[in-house]
Fold this sequence. Notes:
single chain; Tetracycline Repressor, domain 2
Amino acid sequence: MSAGMSVSEQKLPVCPGKKEKFFMGEIKTDRRVSRTRRLMLEALMALIEERGYENITVQDILDRADVGRSTFYAHFRDKDELLLSWFEHLRSLFEQQKEALLTSRSTGSTPDANIVLDLFRHTAEHHKLYKAVAGRQSGEMILKYLHRYLNGLLLPVFEELTKRRRDVPVPVEVTANYLVGTLLSLMTWWLDHNMPYPPEKMEAMFRTLTRPSIEAALGTPVADNSEAVNNTAEGFYRLFIDPLCCAGR
């Protein structure tokens, strides 16, 4: 070992083919992990529809998924954590959209992001499961999780667009909290009334309800002649990127 170098810094000799075998083994392990997690989640989803979340035990999940107890606890702390893993793909999509919003602000391009519509579509696609947990302790847990996550997603966007301004009428953390609360309240109403409108209509109504609030909170009223622009999804979501984008159009 060379003086001053740690073990981790040494370049150890690798036998021909060993590196390839290592990565192939890693891929197989990742696939097994993904498959095991998917089996447990699918078991939980099926059991929720059959019995309701509160009536399910970890043992029920193990029996349905045909996995051992040690395997379950190697992946999840409890059934609550397993349930929340259901949102992993949605969380990944939202993270991509947040980056698109922030990138659009710096490049001036049109963002290809609509977090609100995607949430309504996800709810519609899985409405049986949402309704199976809604109004119960598990439903409150999911709403709290979504509120905390979406608030954390929006806050950096608002902080970025207002960081050079000193005259924002409402603190950005208040604005973000208000928007998320409104969105989740609207989503809950929609589910409780058996989704009387399609996701696209719900997203459009959310825009209509909240656009004046965003403008007031950011202190950037949109010019009268830009009304047509801001009645579109593009116009609304550009408020998240640049509140002055539409003035004077």
